[in-house]
Design brief:
The chain is mainly alpha-helical and about 120 residues long. About 75% of the residues lie in helices and about 0% in strands. It is built from 4 helices and no strands. Helix 1 runs parallel beside helix 3 and helix 2 runs antiparallel to helix 3.
Length: about 120
């Protein structure tokens, strides 16, 4: 297997992740969230951006030959991409949990299990 494949993939995936984060933030409607909730969301967005940049720059340095391919660089890129994708999944999950079928905020605080039982 080509050692540079993971780095080439990261160079292609990271811009898409950052675009997804940007579009998600632009699509966010003002929600009634607590101050702590807004702070955690901002922290999560920053963490995603930092992880993406780490994966992107290490990949770029490896591809141009400035940094050798090692188990450490592989681990850093995989961990950064996994972390950013996981955090973006958390954002998606939170959006699904806080909107109804018509796109409005739910009127009750039923858990997903309660919603499933309620729909039956």
């Amino acid at each position: 297997m080509d050692d540079s494949l993971i780095y080439e993939g990261a160079m292609q995936v990271v811009p898409l992740l950052l675009i997804a984060l940007f579009l998600d933030n632009r699509a966010n409607t003002p929600e009634l969230r607590s101050r702590l909730g807004r702070a955690l969301t901002r922290f999560q967005d920053r963490a995603i951006a930092v992880l993406c940049l780490i994966a992107f720059f290490i990949s770029m340095f490896v591809l141009v030959g400035a940094v050798p391919v090692t188990a450490l660089t592989n681990a850093i890129v995989v961990a950064a991409l996994s972390g950013s994708i996981g955090l973006l999944f958390g954002t998606i999950w939170r959006r699904f949990a806080t909107t109804t079928d018509d796109g409005s905020a739910p009127s009750s605080s039923l858990s997903p299990k309660d919603h499933h039982d309620h729909d039956s």
